[in-house]
Amino acid sequence: MLGNFSFGDYFKKEAIHFAWEFLVDVLKLPPDKLWVTVYQTDDEAYQVWADEIQVPRDRITRIGDKAGGKRYESDNFWAMGDTGPCGPCSEIFYDHGPGIPGGPPGSPDEDGDRYIEIWNLVFMQYDRDASGVLTPLPKPSVDTGMGLERLAAVMQGVHSNYEIDLFQHLIQAAAAATGATDLQSNSLRVIADHIRATAFLIADGVLPSNEGRGYVLRRIMRRAIRHGYKLGAEGTFFHHLVKPLIVEMGAAYPELAHAEAQVTRAIQQEEERFAETLSHGMKLLEEDIARLSGETLPGATVFRLYDTYGFPVDLTADIARERGLLLDMAGFEREMAAQRERARAHSQFGQRQTADLGIASGCTEFHGYDRLEEEVTVLALFRDGKAVDPLNPGDEGVVVLDHTPFYAESGGQVGDSGWLRADGLEFAVHDTRKQSEGVFIHIGTLQQGQLRVGATVMAQVDAVQRQATALHHSATHLLHAALRRVLGPHVAQKGSLVDPQRLRFDFSHPEPVTPEQLETIERLVNAQIRGNMAVETTIMAPEEAIAAGAMALFGEKYGDRVRVLRMGDFSTELCGGTHVRRVGDIGLFKITAESGVAAGVRRIEAVTGERALDLVSTLQDRARQVAQLVKGDRDNFPDKVRQLVERIRQLEKEVEQAKARLASGQGADLLGQTVQVDGVKVLAARLDGVDAKTLREAVDRYKDQLKAAAVVLATVEDGKVRLVAGVTSAETRRLKAGDLVNMVAQQVGGKGGGRPDLAQAGGTDPSKLDAALQSVPDWIRDRLA
């Protein structure tokens, strides 16, 4: 029984007194408005409330376990799970008065809103084992929870959290942004609530994406955007709420104000991205709902909205709930499973040599940080995923060693290559990977000799490849630090690849990096390289490393001890890869490309060392060739090229003008070919020597001149027929330009289409063009008839 357990006066007594003192003496809440609950057998807490605080006993409720619930499942007994620390609770409720429906805690009407919990004391005093036995903790504690916004509502004399000043200002701002007039709208409340979550997540470095916390953010944002759409908002509106939010919360959270531009930009980009699909998705949903015979939206529809239009499932569920509909989640999961199966079928993941070999973990020691060559013992051999002994010449296989200098692919760094050698024996290692934690597998081909389990061989890493990889890996650390300095602290690593040829670094950033920013980043990295600081590594606990300023990757699992890589005061990160000894070893850093790989994720590719010098040499050679072509030198060839480009543009403009004059000159002759067909002027003719753009302009011009007209113009260019048809707007009720141009195109071996008033087509048989054009009046006559 819990009531027989006591920790003396200091444990529950002090926590209860502190809570009451703060609410009654500091906040001045009326004592007669406060109600209390305790766990049904917690006599100690009950005694403090009744005898010391002197809360009337009719306002103290004992609450026990839920009927039919799990072991100790109760509103007044908290547990972190089936086992572990747990203990009874004592809660304080505020009575909003008889004007609000609901009964006191523990009563049949307790789910009403009259009595609102504002304080909770969790007395963490037990450890529960798997059999349900409670053992007193040697050092009990109190977990205090207070509803800040609920308390603000009490202090401001309102009932709902949404009625407090902070929310009211945001709701008013949301109404102004969306054009809504009903300030009690639930949609405005959703938007006001979601702008807070959105802004704080982005300020903390989260960006909308399709996975992990980025997807949680995307779901929140798209739900708010949909509610704005529901209120009648036109265009983007959500990002306009960042400034009002900072007015309300920027003083308490200055990091929000510092990130205002970044937050606003990220929200606007997501709004613009979702706006492209929202109306189409809503149209599909409305059509499917209109066709619905029952009350359940098919899983196929839910999946299509998710997969094609970017509707998170909970957003579709919101809309369905508003219409009184259910979702066929089983059908949705079947569609998702089918998509995953399709993805698996197309995946190239896995190779026959790297299937799960069933090796016990922890049998390979890595010595490659301080050596590239050592004598090792072969523990196991595999071919085609099966254990063998021996490997024979020409065999492709996997070798497991007792220890190794070969780095296994991890953290974006490719695995080492090299050789296993002994007298008369050579195994070429093409790649090194981790089969499981602590087990390195060396994948390659036995080139000579016979390799047996138990053999002693010399493991030799390809030093040239390892060094080139190390240059690129160390450069990614400098690049990461430089990105955060130039673009902002929101930059976080999203992926990387380092191999002997190049480095690739993916990072969170909502927009393309400008050429000026790229130049600044490159210069900053090269300045550190010239500084030639030492690269220091330290082994420590993860918490100690992060406290020391080391950057860790979100979601990455770290062991009890981590390797911290420090490059002066410029970069400190957790990293298990191989690196240079001094930053100057990198030599030179050159960015080769910047691109986007996903929403809110950018990619920079770069080279270092010898590769960077090769790139510079190539660029210089190309510059020299261009300078020769434009009869300039290294200093003035950009100006020469610029002059040529301007000259070409001028000549292109003159050519277009000449074609327009040619078309206009032929125009008078062409107008003479116009025929009347049932009140419609029909012109079908060739206009030679012009391009497609001039052809379209000519069709528009003749439509204007002829008023009620149908025009088809054709030209032959490089053996291909180009056709443009136009119909004046009044005549589109009876004639469609798309049908007209397609009729002509089919006669010359082509097809086409377009709008009712203007359409284009092509063909491959110019010999039949004249006959096709002559057929136009009769075709129009038949259509009009």
Describe the structure.
With 785 residues, the protein is an alpha+beta fold. Helices cover 40% and strands 25% of the residues. The chain contains 21 helices and 30 strands. The strands form seven sheets. Strands 1, 2, 3, 4, 5 and 6 form a six-stranded mixed sheet that branches. A six-stranded antiparallel beta barrel has the order 10-12-16-15-14-17. A six-stranded mixed sheet has the order 25-26-27-28-30-29. Strand 23 (589-598) and strand 24 (601-608) form a beta hairpin. Helix 5 crosses helix 9. The protein is extended. Mean pLDDT is 87; it is low at 1-9, 67-73 and 346-355.
Topology (SSEs and partners):
Elements lengths: L11 H15 L7 E6 L3 H10 L7 E4 L13 E3 L4 E12 L19 E14 L5 E13 L1 H8 L9 H14 L7 H18 L8 H20 L10 H8 L4 H5 L1 H32 L4 E2 L1 H11 L3 H10 L3 E2 L1 H18 L18 E2 L6 E11 L2 E2 L8 E6 L1 E2 L13 E5 L2 E12 L2 E10 L7 E6 L1 H25 L5 E6 L4 E6 L6 H17 L3 E6 L1 H6 L14 E6 L3 E4 L14 E10 L2 E8 H21 L7 H35 L3 E3 L2 E7 L5 H15 L2 E9 L2 E8 L9 H11 L4 E3 L3 E6 L5 H6 L1 H9 L1
Parallel strand pairs: 1-2, 7-8, 9-13, 26-27
Antiparallel strand pairs: 1-4, 3-4, 4-5, 5-6, 10-11, 10-12, 10-17, 12-16, 14-15, 14-17, 15-16, 18-19, 19-24, 20-21, 21-22, 23-24, 25-26, 27-28, 28-30, 29-30
